[in-house]
Amino acid sequence: MNRPLSGRVAAQAVLLLNAFLVLAPMVIMGLSAFKSTREIFQNPFGLPGVWRWENFARVWVEAKFALYFRNSILVTMASIIIILILGAMAGYALGRFRFGGNDLLYLYFLSGLMLPIRLGIIPLFILMRNLHLLDTLWALILTYAASGLPSAVFILTGFFRTLPSDLDSAARIDGAGEWLIFQRIMVPLVRPALIIVAVYNLIPVWNDFFFPLVFIQTDRLKTLPLGMTTFFGQYSTDWGALFAGLTLAALPVVTLYALLSQQFIRGLTAGAVKG
Amino acid sequence: MRTSRRMWLVFFLGPATVVFATFITYPILSALAFSMYAWEGIGRRGFIGLANFARLFATFPYSGLLVNAFWHNVLVFVVTMLIQNVTALGLAVLLARSPWGTRGYRVVFFLPVMLSLVIVGFLWALFLNPIFGLVNKFLTLAHAGALARPWLGDASTALLTLIVVNAWRWLGFPTIVFLAGINAVPEEYVEAARIDGAGEWDVIRRIIFPLLAPAVTIIVLLTFIGSFNWFELPYIMQGVSGAPNRATDVLSLLFYRTAFGEVDTGLQDIGIGSAIAVLMFALLLTVSAVGAVLLRRREVELA
Prior knowledge:
The complex is a heterodimer.
Chain A: H1 5-32, H2 37-42, H3 54-62, H4 65-96, H5 102-111, H6 121-130, H7 137-162, H8 166-173, H9 178-189, H10 191-207, H11 210-215, H12 224-234, H13 239-268
Helix pairs in contact in A: 1-13, 3-13, 4-7, 4-10, 4-12, 5-7, 7-10, 8-9, 10-13, 12-13
Chain B: H1 2-34, E1 37-40, E2 43-47, H2 51-58, H3 62-96, H4 102-114, H5 117-127, H6 134-141, H7 158-170, H8 172-183, H9 187-195, H10 200-211, H11 213-228, H12 232-238, H13 251-260, H14 270-302
Antiparallel strand pairs in B: 1-2
């Protein structure tokens, strides 16, 4: 389509301005991470005079970022593994077996898509206390796993339904057991759906702040978002360290995004964009 | 064979059902019940019907706090719609023409959506620091030093500033959703309109916008849910009490304070907290249901 040059230039100006507004704060964050506090105050926009890598070392070791990262990785991986295993098992049964109550159970899981689980935080807190799970990573893992199940069941049931029914019939005639059919034949065929489910849950779980805030007290059990609040309280006058901490915290997500941006854009808008 | 089939079904469905029922269904249903009991700390006492709701609506300090927080949520929704989603629609219209660099713009615009609100909140709290922050320094450099102010410390600007920071983080999301909606408009509709002599603006207004209705409904709905669940950003940037002087207090903060206690006042009341949860729940569920119905109706019209 041919449009007047002036229109195209104006459009580029608007898009470039927005890209600048997105990127400039992040670039300044990254540059400030290498400066001393005094330099940040005196020269906030320029390049650092000396690149102070020691800011990162201070944050990684003294401010326990290594520990917070470990906890976040553990919680995120465990939650997603549970979501994938339980979601695939339930989706397989709902998608490929006909039994009384099938539709009802499916709708029951789907109801979780609408329910804001945060509003159940008081009973959930008391439940975790009674189960002696408060102030453990399990409280987080179980909460994330449960809240990830509705979308997983929804996506995976849909995928399992589309697989041709001859597949399992043939395997059954050959005498394969149910678990073998599920594990060896069905799961490999829905691998793309498993990836969608994992991507859909990865960022919300990794970034969550609310549940650690409620469940976790002990400093060495804090996940990265919660640990950051402790860190900001302790280092409030050391701006070089603060920016290094922010940069370090943003780095894994930004790196992952740089590698797989299309998957993340598609995954995170999956609920809002159809087909 | 039949019993073994049943056992397999239990085996496949049992774990997911138990986890979901225990950690989602049970807490949510209990939250409804909790609102109708008297509480001492986290000990449940007798059934008191709607007395918690009556106290929430009619007694000091809850009634004032509730109304104050509620209107802040409404403001967050309205202003976010106006500045974030209208901007997103504009960007999507520009990107839909596939200008030079479209792929790059998409990736860049969506980037902040990936960042945790804790990072975003702390980063902007540093930028907005009244003395050392770069926002006021920039204004001074741009000879607009008169505009420099304690953005987060001034009750008249604090909430709006938070909304702008929130929009900085989220803008890419509605942009991508609108862009996908526009790209889904069949090319022949646009061609046909052009042949009939429609101008650029006519095409946008008469063809693209009406066909974009489902995407708009989804974004309005998600913005509403997000605005009424708003918690992380005000908590990180302004603290649990909605500083300054409750100017940034919202329902989720009020709920959190009544449920788990406020550092400064020690105010904790699980009965009232549960009542707030039930109100928010009813509001979110009603709006989601209405939205879902609207969405379905529009889909039928399009078919």
